[in-house]
UniProtKB/TrEMBL annotation:
It comes from the Bacteria. One of its GO terms (molecular function) is DNA binding. Residues 145-216 form the HTH crp-type domain. This is Cyclic nucleotide-binding protein. The keyword Transcription applies. The lineage of its organism: Bacteria, Pseudomonadati, Pseudomonadota, Alphaproteobacteria, Sphingomonadales.
C-alpha cells in the first residue's frame, strides 16, 4: 500500500493533469539493488519507467569499454519514453546508483495515454524538446570548449541551491572518474581542475559533497569560455522546467 501511494504521488509530480491517474493502474513497482543494470542499450523493450525512490544514471558505452554519462535521474523522473514512442531498441543504458524503486509502465499504455489529450501530447513534446536542447548544448561544449570549461559547465548543471550557505552544492557528488565520464576526459584532469578551483575559493570539496562557494565566479568562467553573456544557471533552470512541461 505504501509503495502504491508513493507511486501515485510520484506520478502526479512527474505527469500532467489526469495522466498520472490514467497510468497508475498499468504500473508495476520494481525494486533494484545499487549497481544493477535496469535497462541495457539495444534491448527491445518499450516500457517507460518512473523513479519512485533512489537515483539512477543514464549512460552510453562503446564496444571498447568507453563510457559517457549523460545524466542522473531522481525520484519523479522518467526514462524509457523514446522506445515507447518509436518502438526501436534502447539507445542508452540505465544503472541504479543505489537501492532504488521504479514503476514500470507498458510502452503502448504510456504512448496512448500521453497522446490522448492535447495537454498530454504537448507535455511529451516539451520533454523531448528539452532533451534535444540539452544534448545540443553538450555536443557544443564537447566540440568547442577545453576540459576545464566543460567541467565548470557540468558543475553548475549538477549543483542545486543551498539555502544555508547562499551558494550551491552537489550532494552526493560524483566521483572524479564519473565527472570525467560526463565531460569526455580522464580522472586526473578533473582532480587537477577541482584543486585549481578550490585554491581560488570557488568551491570546497568534502567527502561526498562539493560546495560551490563563489557561484558568480564559476558562472563568469563559463560565460567567458563560451563567449556568451547568458546566465548559465538560468539556461539550466529553463531546460529543467521544460522537462517538467512547465514552460514553452
Amino acid at each position: 500500500m505504501a509503495h502504491q501511494l508513493g507511486l501515485v504521488a510520484a506520478a502526479r509530480r512527474a505527469l500532467p493533469g489526469d495522466l498520472a491517474d490514467r497510468l497508475s493502474p498499468h504500473a508495476t513497482v520494481l525494486r533494484s539493488r545499487g549497481g544493477r543494470l535496469l535497462l541495457n542499450v539495444g534491448a527491445p523493450s518499450t516500457s517507460v519507467h518512473l523513479v519512485l525512490e533512489g537515483r539512477v544514471q543514464v549512460v552510453v558505452c562503446s564496444g571498447h569499454g568507453g563510457e559517457v554519462i549523460l545524466r542522473d535521474l531522481a525520484a519523479g523522473d522518467l526514462f524509457g519514453e523514446l522506445s515507447a514512442i518509436d518502438g526501436r531498441p534502447r539507445s542508452t543504458s540505465i544503472v541504479a546508483l543505489g537501492d532504488c524503486t521504479v514503476a514500470s509502465i507498458p510502452g503502448p499504455a504510456f504512448r496512448d495515454a500521453a497522446c490522448a489529450t492535447p495537454e498530454g501530447a504537448l507535455w511529451l513534446a516539451r520533454r523531448l524538446t528539452a532533451q534535444v536542447r540539452g544534448l545540443t548544448e553538450r555536443i557544443l561544449e564537447l566540440n568547442t570548449l577545453r576540459v576545464p570549461a566543460r567541467l565548470h559547465c557540468e558543475l553548475l548543471r549538477l549543483s542545486t541551491d543551498d539555502p544555508e550557505t547562499g551558494g550551491r552544492t552537489i550532494d552526493p557528488a560524483p566521483t572524479h572518474a564519473d565527472l570525467a565520464a560526463r565531460v569526455g576526459t580522464h580522472r586526473e584532469a578533473v582532480t587537477r581542475e577541482l584543486r585549481w578551483l578550490a585554491g581560488r575559493n570557488i568551491l570546497a570539496q568534502h567527502r561526498r559533497r562539493i560546495e560551490i562557494t563563489d557561484v558568480p565566479a564559476l558562472a563568469k568562467l563559463v560565460r567567458e569560455a563560451k563567449g556568451d553573456d547568458r546566465d548559465p544557471l538560468e539556461d539550466a533552470a529553463a531546460n529543467d522546467a521544460r522537462m517538467l512541461g512547465t514552460t514553452a
